[in-house]
């Protein structure tokens, strides 16, 4: 067990990691690494993708490329699984990870997912504590070996614990460590927020995945008489080859039929996410699956109310009653229910202002240093 009295070196392993990637696992990993650095620890991020130039100097001071994975991104699960398990490649990757841990004097290795975080390999290394970070419940063929190798298992919500239990895994000893806000942009003041309520756009930000449900939302929004702005982007992973491009084409077709709608497929750099969400009247998160809900949190962090379905972790994150940071809509009401809730909220200045304030204060529980403290308590 690492010495609690000295600064630690924590290595996060995520094969698909790139700066500014439009995916929750990457952004949450960067945020936790940032929080650990603020507490005086060193945080490495080990990726299988070549880094690109970025203007965001706030994150990823330590980014290490693991060249032995040998897969081209974006990739699907089968491609990555085959690449790391063919002709002894798993042992080569394991040896390279051990060498990196020794070179950087790593105390804790965090495998960010059983497959994409290489948790299924997780080589034993003297003095290195193994943590499996389960943002989603993985496939059995990856998760079973990953759990056998893990000293500690953490997940971003009780939703993940429940889903694992439903699939026959014993999650009673797993720890919940929520995702963190990467940035703290600051919320518009009351006058600016009221102006946004009156004339600002409805905004949607999502990774290109069918579970994000953007196409159905846009299809149901054809009678909405307010500006609708959508940003979608490809992540480094996808369910099947070409799935993200196909999903964008379907969403773009629906957006073209909106009276005041726009869509783009160039993702936002991480340091522009919160400023963009801050300038929305409301942010709709139409996901049908969301084990945490990072976009909802980022919107709340700038005082923008959120409208979302009552699925997975979103009701817990957004809250209810006087302290809610938005409106949770029963899934049975469908996408028309999301638009209806947004319309009613935007017509009610008193409730809108209350939700905006509550959203901002709820987000304070997810600052990087707060989550980093939670992480260290869980893994030491």
TrEMBL record:
CDD domains xref list: GT4_PimA-like (cd03801)
Pfam families xrefs: Glyco_trans_1_4, Glyco_transf_4
Occurrences of domain Glycosyltransferase subfamily 4-like N-terminal (ranges): 24-180
Organism domain of life: Bacteria
Single biological process term from Gene Ontology: carbohydrate derivative biosynthetic process
Keywords per UniProt: Glycosyltransferase, Transferase
Keyword Electron transport: no
GO terms, molecular function: glycosyltransferase activity
Protein name: Glycosyltransferase
Native species: Lentzea guizhouensis
Source lineage: Bacteria, Bacillati, Actinomycetota, Actinomycetes, Pseudonocardiales
């Amino acid at each position: 067990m690492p010495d609690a009295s000295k600064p630690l070196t924590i290595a996060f392993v995520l094969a698909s990691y790139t700066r500014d990637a439009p995916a929750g696992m990457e952004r949450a990993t960067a945020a936790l690494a940032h929080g650990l650095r603020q507490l005086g620890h060193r945080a490495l991020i080990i990726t299988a993708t070549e880094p690109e130039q970025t203007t965001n100097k706030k994150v990823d001071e330590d980014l290490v490329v693991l060249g032995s994975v040998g897969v081209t991104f974006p990739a699907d699960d089968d491609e990555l699984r085959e690449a790391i398990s063919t002709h002894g490649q798993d042992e080569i990757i394991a040896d390279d990870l051990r060498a990196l841990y020794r070179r950087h004097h790593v105390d804790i290795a965090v495998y960010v997912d059983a497959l994409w975080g290489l948790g299924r390999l997780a080589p034993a290394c003297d003095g290195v504590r193994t943590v499996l970070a389960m943002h989603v419940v993985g496939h059995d063929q990856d998760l079973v070996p990953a759990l056998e190798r893990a000293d500690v298992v953490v997940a971003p919500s009780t939703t993940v614990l429940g889903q694992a239990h439903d699939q026959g895994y014993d999650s009673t000893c797993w720890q919940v460590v929520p995702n963190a806000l990467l940035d703290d942009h600051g919320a518009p003041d009351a006058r600016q927020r009221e102006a946004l309520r009156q004339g600002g756009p409805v905004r949607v930000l999502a990774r290109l995945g069918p579970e994000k449900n953007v196409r159905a939302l846009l299809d149901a929004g054809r009678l909405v008489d307010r500006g609708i702005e959508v940003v979608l982007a490809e992540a480094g992973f996808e369910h099947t080859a070409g799935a993200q491009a196909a999903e964008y084409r379907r969403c773009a077709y629906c957006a073209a039929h909106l009276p005041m709608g726009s869509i783009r497929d160039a993702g936002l750099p991480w340091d522009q996410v919160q400023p963009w969400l801050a300038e929305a009247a409301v942010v709709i998160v139409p996901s049908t699956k969301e084990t945490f809900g990072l976009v909802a949190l980022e919107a709340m962090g700038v005082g923008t109310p959120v409208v979302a379905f009552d699925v997975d972790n979103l009701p817990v994150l957004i809250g209810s009653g006087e302290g809610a940071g938005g409106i949770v809509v029963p899934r049975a009401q469908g996408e028309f229910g999301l638009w209806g809730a947004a319309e009613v909220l935007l017509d009610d200045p008193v409730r809108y202002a209350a939700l905006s304030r509550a959203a901002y204060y709820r987000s304070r529980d997810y600052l990087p240093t707060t989550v980093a403290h939670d992480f260290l308590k869980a893994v030491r």
